[in-house]
Automatic annotation (TrEMBL):
InterPro entries, per the entry: Acyl_CoA_acyltransferase, GNAT_dom
MF terms in GO: acyltransferase activity, transferring groups other than amino-acyl groups
Keywords: Transferase
Protein name: Acetyltransferase (GNAT) family protein
Domain N-acetyltransferase: 1-141
Length: 246
C-alpha cells in the first residue's frame, strides 16, 4: 500500500466518491472539500491508489486533519497504512508530538489503537483532542556522568511571585562529552499546549543540583542551554544540555 502525494486527477477522483457517499449516507468529508482542495495546492494531500484508482486520502503531512477511506475499501488496513506513512514522515522530520481532533467521534477508537491519548477537555461529550508523543532514546558515550533534572512550567513561574509546581518534570541521566556539554539518555519534550493559560512555556534545567537556566523556553538563554523549538509539533525539546559560556 504505497502512500504518495496526490495529483489533480487523484483529487478529482476522491471528491467524486466523497460527494457520492455524502449523498447516500449524509456523512463524510464532502463538506470539507475546500480544505481537501487547498491541501493539494499546499502539497500535503496524500493518497493510496488501488488499480490506479484513489481509495484513501489524507490531509496533513504528520498528524492528519482529514482521513477518509472509500466506503467499499474500509476495514482493509488503508487507514493504518496512511498513519504508518505519516508517522515515518514525522520521525524523519524530527517532529515530537502528533495532535489531532477526532471528528467524527467514532474515529477515537482508531486513534486510541495507534497510541494516542486524550488531553484537554476530558468530559464525556467534550471535543476529543488527542496526541501521541514521539520519544527518542540515545546510547550515552563514555564520560563523566551527570544528573539532570528538566522541568517545564507555566510562564507565571518565572515572575518570582512564589513557588509554582512544574507541569512536568524529567529526571534524566546524562554524560559529559568532549566539549563539556551533557548528552542525555533520552529526548526531553515539553508541550506548548500544556501551558495552562496559553502563554509561553517555561523551562528549568538543573545539572547536579545547580540551575543552568530558568526562563521561557523560547528565550535565547534557553536556546543557548540546548532547548530547541519544534514548530511542526508545537513543542520544545532537549537532547544535549550546553554549558554556560563564561
Amino acid at each position: 500500500m504505497e502512500v504518495i502525494k496526490a495529483t489533480p486527477a487523484d483529487l478529482a477522483a476522491a471528491l467524486t466518491w466523497l460527494e457520492r457517499e455524502y449523498a447516500e449516507d449524509g456523512e463524510g468529508f464532502w463538506c470539507n472539500r475546500g480544505i481537501i482542495e487547498r491541501a493539494l495546492e499546499y502539497g500535503d494531500l496524500w493518497v493510496i491508489r488501488r488499480d490506479d484508482e484513489v481509495v484513501a486520502v489524507q490531509v496533513g503531512d504528520y498528524a492528519p486533519d482529514i482521513v477518509s477511506v472509500r466506503k467499499d475499501c474500509r476495514q482493509q488496513g488503508l487507514g493504518d497504512a496512511l498513519f504508518a506513512a505519516s508517522l515515518q514522515r514525522a520521525m524523519d522530520d524530527n517532529v515530537n508530538v502528533l495532535s489531532i481532533e477526532c471528528s467524527p467521534r467514532s474515529s477515537w477508537t482508531f486513534w486510541q489503537r495507534h497510541g494516542f491519548e486524550r488531553f484537554g477537555d476530558l468530559s464525556e461529550w467534550g471535543t476529543i483532542t488527542a496526541r501521541r508523543m514521539l520519544p527518542r532514546s540515545f546510547d550515552l558515550p563514555a564520560g563523566v556522568p551527570a544528573d539532570v533534572v528538566i522541568g517545564f512550567y507555566p510562564e507565571a513561574a518565572t515572575y518570582g511571585r512564589g513557588p509554582i509546581p512544574p507541569i512536568a518534570s524529567h529526571h534524566v541521566r546524562g554524560s559529559r562529552i568532549d566539549d563539556g556539554a551533557i548528552m542525555l539518555e533520552r529526548r526531553v519534550i515539553g508541550l506548548c499546549d500544556d501551558e495552562p493559560e496559553g502563554k509561553g512555556l517555561a523551562v528549568k534545567i538543573e545539572i547536579d543540583g545547580k540551575v543552568r537556566c530558568f526562563c521561557k523556553a523560547k528565550y535565547e538563554e534557553a536556546e543557548e542551554a540546548g532547548v530547541t523549538r519544534d514548530w511542526k509539533g508545537g513543542a520544545f525539546y532537549i537532547d544535549v544540555v550546553e554549558l554556560a559560556v563564561d
